[in-house]
Amino acid sequence: MNKKLGLTALGASLALTLAACGGEGAGSNTNTADADPSDLSIGVSMPTETSERWIADGENVESQLEEAGYTVDLQFAGDDIPTQAQQIDQMIVEGADALIVAAIDGTALSSQLQAAADQGIPVISYDRLIRETENVDFYVSFDNFRVGEAQGTALLTGLGVTDEEGNPTGVTGPFNIELFAGSLDDNNAGFFFDGAMSVIQPYIDNGTLVVKSGQTSIEQAATLRWSQETAQRRMEDLLTSSYNDGSVVNGVLSPYDGISRGIITALQNAGYGPTQDAQPRPMPAITGQDAEIASVKLIADGVQDSTIFKDTRLLAEQAVAAATAYLEEEEPEANDTETYDNGVKVVPAYLLPVETVYQDDIESVLIESEYYTAEEVAAGQSD
Fold first, then answer.
1. From residue 351, how far is each of 117, 144, 167, 338 by CA, in Å?
2. 300-314, pLDDT tens digit by residue?
3. Where are the beta strands (DSSP E) in 48-126?
C-alpha cells in the first residue's frame, strides 16, 4: 500500500495547518514544544483490521508520523472494545505524548481518556467522534452529513430519478428501495443516515420511492459494527418477508462498501443480477462508501452502482498536523467549530470533502490520483 501514503504534500500541509495561537488543550502541560520529534511517541488506535479501509488508515497515519520524525505505536483492536481500551491504557503507561483514536464505540473509553487528560496527553478523535467526554481535544474527519447527502443523490441517480447533480429527470417510479444504516455506536452513522434521508425523504413522501419493508428508522436500518455478514442476513430477511409476492428491489441505500457486498451476496443468492443490466431481475442500484478495492471492481463490473471516496491519505495528514500542533503547544486549525457536539462539548474539527465514484469516475478519481492502479481495479485487490 505504499502508493497510498501520500507523503509528498505533508510538509506543506503541516505548515498550512498549524496556527500558532497558544495551546489550551489537554496537551498544554506536556512540555513537548522544544523536544525533538524523535524523542516523542504517538499512540495510534484503529478499530479493526477486517476492513481494508482501516488498514490503509493505520498505515497512512503511521507512515506520515514516522516521516515527521515521531515514534509510533500503531494498534488494531479487532473490533473488540475491551481490547481497544487495554491497548490505549498500555500506550499511556508506556509514555505516549499524544493519542490518535478511531474508536470502536465512541462512548466506551472514558476512563482511558481521563487518564490521558490527567497526564496532559492530547487526544485526537480520528474519523469517528468520541462521545460523552470532555477529554477529547480535536476531531479530524470528512463532512459526514455531506457523505449521506451524496449517498442519497447517488441512489436517486442510480434509479434515474435525478442526474448526478441532483436535478430531477422527471422519472416518477415508483421504485422499491430498502434502507441500511451503520453501527449506532458510531457517531458517523447518524450523520450518514440523516444526510441521505434529507435527499430521499421527499421522494418517499411523493411516492416515487417506496420502502416496501416499512423499515425507515435508523434503529431498524442499523448494522452493528458495520458487519457485512449482518447486512447479508438482514437483506435475506427483507427479501423473505417483503418481496415474496414477486415484486423486486430496485435500489438499496448502503452506507459502507462492506455492507454493500453483504447486500449484493443476498441479492445474488435470491436470483438478482449478476449486474444492473441483467434480466429478468437486474441488480438494484446500490450505494456504498470508502472505495474499497473489492467494491471498486464491483462498480467497474456493473454490479455495485456507486461508492463515496474519502481520501484517507488527506485524513492522515490532518491527524498528523493536529498532533504536531499540540506537541508544539499550538492549536490545530479547525474549519468547523459548531457541528460536532459530543454530548459534553462541541469538539473543534477539521473536515475534508468527499467524491462520489460511479463506473465512469474510476479512472479520473481513483487511478489518476494513484490511490489504485488499473491492475488493482481489474483484480479487485490492492498490493
1. 24, 8, 26, 12
2. 999 999 999 999 999
3. 71-76, 98-101, 123-126
